[in-house]
Design brief:
There is one protein chain. A hairpin with a 5-residue loop joins strand 5 and strand 6. The C terminus is likely disordered. By secondary structure, this protein is of the alpha+beta class. The protein is globular, with a radius of gyration of 21 Å. The longest helix has 24 residues. It is built from 8 helices and 13 strands. Strands 2-3-1-13-12-11-10 form a 7-stranded antiparallel β-sheet, with no helix packed on it. The protein has a 6-stranded mixed β-sheet with strand order 4-5-6-7-9-8.
């Protein structure tokens, strides 16, 4: 089944009649849209567009998961933990699944959605966990609290957008690892992180807490968009720290993408000569952890944060991405997380990976412990 009914609960502008016939309406709209695209392309570049389309499909569809897995396994092979957002339901299956399973214990939520390409996962490098079979998922507990405290956001929290696990590392360090994908405008980010923090603080106060997320935060805060500074202010009130420090720079983006008119969300389309001036250039990807920036027992420090939009430990400023070699519209964000000296130092490094349909955040050991 390729199409599902469109719910008026999620899209209030939908009338009951439109909801009832939403599947045939989708088929009709897709046919009209495809006909328009073919007409436009035949008019502009009749003899070349099929070749261009095939090469893009090869990079962004056929080989995308392989490219993502290759970057995770090869370029960031030193990372102990990888948080993934917006992964296809099939991402950890087949050839890619075999490739990853050889190097990682793959933690996935029970409510993973095989149809939507928006699933959160956590990959733990082999031997990082004491026993992968003892990992406990608490995603349901967090969502239950989030829905109870913010019923208006209930329709925003969809299956696969959150994964939360209680783990024990091989050295006995207890830790909560969580991956979260926020809604487009970021308005559900704070309520969800609040629920995560509450569950962690009340039920697991002696656990380290590390969250890799696409927060969908923006340069300017408004009633319609979650701002970077405002999200950081919220974190500070909950004694949560982030890889971006006390004063995140909203002009240091982890996205730089510009959509053409050859895609269905025309409200996001941008002319070629405005691709940089109107691109979605925002700091959206974060690593959040519990504890201040000091050195008290159980706390963590963060350093060496960097971005990567090439898959080669390099960030190219003002480069529109995804590209055919980096199939993501979110940059990878890499950080070093150091547990206080009086606690286990094993959680030495962290990273956050953004892959649009596959976003990732890894945590790495100190080099001496690799």
């Amino acid at each position: 089944k390729l199409l599902d009914p469109i719910s008026s609960a999620k899209y209030p502008a939908l009338t009951p009649d439109e909801e009832r016939i939403s599947i045939p309406l989708q088929v009709l709209c897709l046919a009209i849209f495809d006909a328009i695209l073919v007409h436009v392309l035949n008019t502009v570049s009749k003899d070349k567009w099929q070749g261009i389309r095939s090469s893009l499909a090869e990079a962004f569809l056929v080989n995308k998961d392989k490219q993502v897995a290759s970057i995770v396994r090869d370029t960031y092979c030193q990372c102990d933990v990888v948080f993934i957002q917006e992964a296809a339901g099939s991402f950890v299956q087949g050839e890619v699944g075999v490739l990853l399973a050889a190097h990682y214990d793959i933690l996935q939520p029970a409510n993973i959605d095989a149809k939507r390409d928006q699933n959160c996962l956590v990959l733990c490098r082999k031997r990082f966990l004491k026993d992968a079979t003892t990992v406990v998922e608490i995603t349901h507990d967090v969502l239950k609290l989030a829905n109870a405290t913010n019923p208006a956001k209930r329709s925003v929290y969809v299956p696969g957008d959150l994964a939360v696990f209680v783990c024990v590392t091989h050295s006995g360090q207890r830790v909560i690892l969580s991956s979260f994908h926020g809604d487009t405008n970021g308005l559900a980010t704070i309520p969800l992180v609040e629920a995560l923090h509450t569950v962690a603080a009340t039920s697991y106060p002696d656990h380290l807490f590390i969250l890799g997320l696409d927060a969908n935060t923006y340069k300017v805060h408004s009633k319609d968009y979650q701002g970077v500074a405002e999200f950081q202010a919220f974190l500070a009130t909950r004694n949560l720290s982030s890889c971006w420090g006390l004063h995140p720079d909203p002009l240091r983006p982890t996205t730089c993408n510009a959509r053409t008119y050859l895609q269905p969300q025309l409200n996001k389309a941008i002319r070629r000569d405005e691709s940089l001036s109107k691109a979605d250039k925002n700091l959206k990807d974060w690593i959040v952890f519990r504890g201040g920036m000091g050195g008290a027992t159980g706390q963590m420090t963060c350093s060496d944060t960097s971005r990567d939009n090439t898959g080669t430990h390099t960030f190219v400023e003002n480069q529109i991405f995804p590209t055919t070699t980096f199939p993501s519209d979110h940059a990878l964000v890499y950080s070093v997380l150091q547990v206080a000296a009086s606690s286990s130092p094993e959680m030495g490094f962290g990273a956050s990976f953004g892959f649009g349909a596959n976003e990732v955040d890894p945590i790495r050991r100190r080099p001496s412990q690799c």
